[in-house]
Structures are given as C-alpha cells and as structure tokens.
Amino acid sequence: MYKSIRSACVSHTGNVRKNNEDNFFFNGEYLPSDNSGTKGVISDPSAKAVGPDDGVFYAVFDGMGGGEYGEIASFRCAEETALFFSDENNINSRDIPDILEDLCSSLNDAVFSAKTDLSAYQVGSTIASVYLVNGGAWACNIGDSKVFWYSKRKQELRQISVDHTDRHFSADNPVLTQYLGIDPKEIRIEPYITFFEPESNDKIILCSDGLTDMLSEAIISETVSFGMPAGNAENMLNNALEAGGRDNISVIVIEII
Q: pLDDT tens digit string along 24-34?
C-alpha cells in the first residue's frame, strides 16, 4: 500500500488555437479564465503524504463552446472544485463515490449557470479526475478527457476512464453524450466512477483530448515508463506539439511512491 506521491502538471494552447479552453485542479491551483497555459511545467517533486483520511484530488477540464465560452466553462469547474473541497473535511474513503457524484453535480450546476448568464447555446466542459486516498484511487470522468493507469510491474498502460461519446454521426468528431453544463432538468449527469489500486512506481495520467488526439497509447506508455512526472509531462507535451498540436493540451502525471 503506497503512502506518498509525486506529481506534475502542464497546460498549453497548442500550435493552432490562440486561447486555452483547458483548465485543471492541481494541488489547489488552477488557471484564470483568460489564460495561455502554464509557464512551463508545474512540479511537485517532493513526496506528498497520502493517508487514510487526507486524500488528494486532481482533475483536468476541457472546455467547449467556442470563443471565450469554453475557457469560462473550464474555469468555473476549477473554481467550483476548489470551493467544494474547501468545505469537505474528515473524508471517509467509503463515502468517496458519493462525494465525487456530488462534486460533478455541483460542477454541472456551475457551468449551466454560466451558460444561462451568457445566454449561450452551448457551454460545457469535460472532467478527468482521480481521488487518491488510503492506498487506493478513485477515477471519475465525464466526457472524453481521459484517465490512464501505467503499471510499472506489468509495463502496461490502461485507460481507466470511459468516454461518453457517440460515433454514429462522425467517427472523426464523435458527439459527447455527457458533459458538464447540461440542463439538470433535461438530462441526469452520470459520471463514470471506478476504484483501482496502483502500486509503487506506477503512474496515473489525466489529460485532455488535445494529447490523445495527437499521441497513441503506445507513445504515452513509453513516455511515462521511466523518469519523473515533470519530465513525463514535458515530453508528452512536446511530442503532441511535434505531432501537430491541433488543440489545447493539458496533462497531469502522478507517480505512486
């Protein structure tokens, strides 16, 4: 059972887009709504203790809506996440699925409220997240941003999240069937939540589709198979930019110690 972690985070506009519609929640930090990504990699190289009752939550948000709306959606998610966890104390690991469902409901309400205020047709965001506590991990996602688990012992990368997409209309541009910002009176938000048990030297990757649209799982697996989280995040970003960087790119890498 692991007792500590290391982590790193990076967010970039990519090679095409002028604005960054991604955001994240990383050790309590997130970007303002008007941003051009992080200034390099944000790293937490020292070991962070993870106990039975003091969990650590990480998330990547990919805003949608065009113009400034996508970045407002992802910002509202990050901001609401900080508020949500500031009110959560003495968390029991048995309650985490309910807590994550409550979080997603709060995020959905926050983004839908922003959509209403903007009088916009569609404003939304995905979420790819993980809650680490008591030697285990809970992944939670809505949309098509992904959570991966790299097993050092098996030398294997596995997608833990489940994409909420419908490829019936277009295989190249699948439609999201779930996202944050849906009218709660019309559709019930149903986050995919699952538990897994990473081991020492394993890594967890959270990312927007700006990464996975550019890099295969084989390249992601090879990139995180050695080195520290900061180097992994930087290398994945550089590889995605070299491959075209057609969208915003955000990555969080967590190493189990």
A: 999 999 999 99
3 state DSSP class of 211: helix
CA distances, 2 to each of 196, 198, 199 (Å)? 13, 8, 7
Q: How many CA atoms lie within 13 A of 38 on its CB side?
A: 22
What residue has token string 């809506």? Answer: 65
Bin 201: left if φ > 0, else alpha if -120 < ψ < 50, else beta.
left
Picking from 172, 130, 167, 128, the residue whose alpha carbon sits closest to that of residue 146 is: 128
Q: Give me the amino acid identity at 44.
A: D
| Over residues 48-52, mean pLDDT | 84
Report the distance separating Cα 68 and Cα 66, nearest Å: 6
Angle ∠(117,119,125) on CA atoms, nearest 5? 75
What is the separation of C-alpha 164 from the centre of its chain, rounded to a whole number of angstroms? 14
| Domains detected in the chain | 4-256 (3.60.40.10)
- Going by pLDDT thresholds of 50, 70 and 90, the confidence category of residue 45 is confident
Q: What is the value of pTM for the model shown?
A: 0.95
The backbone torsions φ and ψ at residue 156, rounded to the nearest 5 degrees and listed phi first, read: -140, 135
User: Residue 14: which region, alpha, beta or left (left: phi > 0; alpha: psi -120 to 50)?
Assistant: left
Q: Beta-carbon neighbour count of residue 196 at 10 Å?
A: 16
* Structure-block tokens of residue 66: 């065009």
Model confidence pLDDT, tens digit, residues 137-152 = 999 999 999 999 999 9
Residue 156, amino acid = E
